[in-house]
Amino acid sequence: AHVWRGLVEEYRDRLPVTEDTPVVTLGEGGTPLVPARHLSELVRGRVLLKVEGCNPTGSFKDRGMTMAMTKAKENGAEVVICASTGNTSASAAAYATAAGIRSVVLVPDGKIAMGKLSQAVAHGATILQVDGNFDDCLNQARKLAEAYPVELVNSVNPFRIEGQKTGAFEVVDVLGDAPDIHALPVGNAGNITAYWKGYTEYAADGVAKKTPKMWGFQAAGAAPIVKGHPVDEPETVATAIRIGHPASWTGATTARDDSGGRIDAVSDEQILAAHRWLSSREGVFVEPASAAGVAGLLAAAEAGEVEAGQTIVITVTGHGLKDPQWAIDLAGEAAQPTRVQPDAVTIARAIGLDV
Ligand code: F0G
Q1: Residue 248 near ligand 1, beta carbon < 6 Å
Q2: Among residues 24, 70, 293, 297, which is most buried (max CB within 10 A)?
Q3: Which ranges of the sequence are coiled-coil (predicted)?
Q4: Ligand 1 atom showing the smallest separation from residue 84 Cα
């Protein structure tokens, strides 16, 4: 059987590494493409979820981070820095530990999910909570990296995009060609930029016969690309994509325009409904932001904008355990377990069996 060696080794010939590059890996990539039975039925097509929560730190960020940390190590960096709504910091902290490099993370004021913060803490990152939002954090991280000997590992680092483009390679390698549509959430816009790079590289080399339409979805309260101007006070329950000045703005619009795709907004209600759809119907537990792509597909289906018979891949970007409070809150009363005595008949009754 083939043992997965992490995406830098698996896609070595398509990544900027040499034989001497010290690869920093935690076994990321090779994530499953899970059939979504109910979504497929709804759109009368084939919908598959690229479940990025299966990466080592529970989000797609590990794809970019293995590459960025590998290059940081190769270049002799001693400190890496990033701004983050949580997942990037968790990933940076883990990969920096694996590389023997110190990590510093700038997180926005009080808006990061506990699961993500716990990872950065556990991996020993130096965590600074900035009095501001993600965009303020990224501004400062960029300044630090310009003025001091610290390596920036946000997706403005081109090696991050290189690593993340492998998500598209994996989809094509499994399906035999690109899907008709690839949907995903958009925050800082690195991931949509990276997928598009991956798909166009494979198409240029004839590995894929076509490229998909790229469908990106922002949260309505944090939808600068949809509005066509930056948003200074972004707000959404999907804290991972609470971003008003996306760094890879032109990467995202290029992906949209060159692919014949779209970037639209979905409301918090639509995001939470999609989150619930995924957990209660498909069996896939994601964090709220990760459901934005599904929310977008549901909205498009309702508007009659999804042709039947298409293959649609949706990247669900992060694991539900990152931000589990939402599942409890959305369940309301149902989150309270029914108390029972340790007695089979009582339990049988409690679950509605005839006794
Ligand atoms: N989904 C999740 C779970 C994320 O954490 C992010 C970004 C996105 C989607 C959006 O991806 O920025 O490439 O458009 N999280 C960053 C972070 C900002 O700091 O963890 P994007």
Answers
A1: no
A2: 293
A3: none
A4: 19
Evaluate whether 215 touches 186 at the Cβ level (below 8 Å).
no
User: Hey, whose CA ends up nearest to atom 4 of ligand 1?
Assistant: 240
| 188 is known to lie in a ligand binding site | yes
pLDDT tens per residue, range 97-108: 999 999 999 999
Q: Is 87 annotated as a binding residue?
A: yes
- In the chain, CATH 3.40.50.1100 sits at 7-59+160-331, 61-159
What integer is the mean pLDDT of 183-199? Answer: 98
Expressed in angstroms and rounded, the spacing between residue 63 Cα and the centre of ligand 1 is: 12
- Contact (CB, 8 A) for 178 and 172: yes
- In CATH, the architecture of 7-59+160-331 is 3-Layer(aba) Sandwich (3.40)
What is the structure's pLDDT at 2? 85
ipTM of the modeled complex: 0.99
Q: What is the mean pLDDT of the chain?
A: 97
Per residue in 310-346, pLDDT tens? 999 999 999 999 999 988 988 888 889 999 999 999 9
Question: What is the whole-number distance in angstroms between the Cα of residue 281 and the centre of ligand 1?
Answer: 24
Q: Of 191, 239, 287, 290, which is best to mutate to test ligand 1, by the most ligand atoms within 8 angstroms of its C-beta? A: 191
Query: Residue 331: its pLDDT value, please?
Result: 86
Decide whether any atom of ligand 1 lies within 6 Å of the 241 Cβ.
Answer: yes
CATH of domain 61-159: 3.40.50.1100
- How far is ligand 1, taken at its centre, from the CA of residue 264, in Å? 16
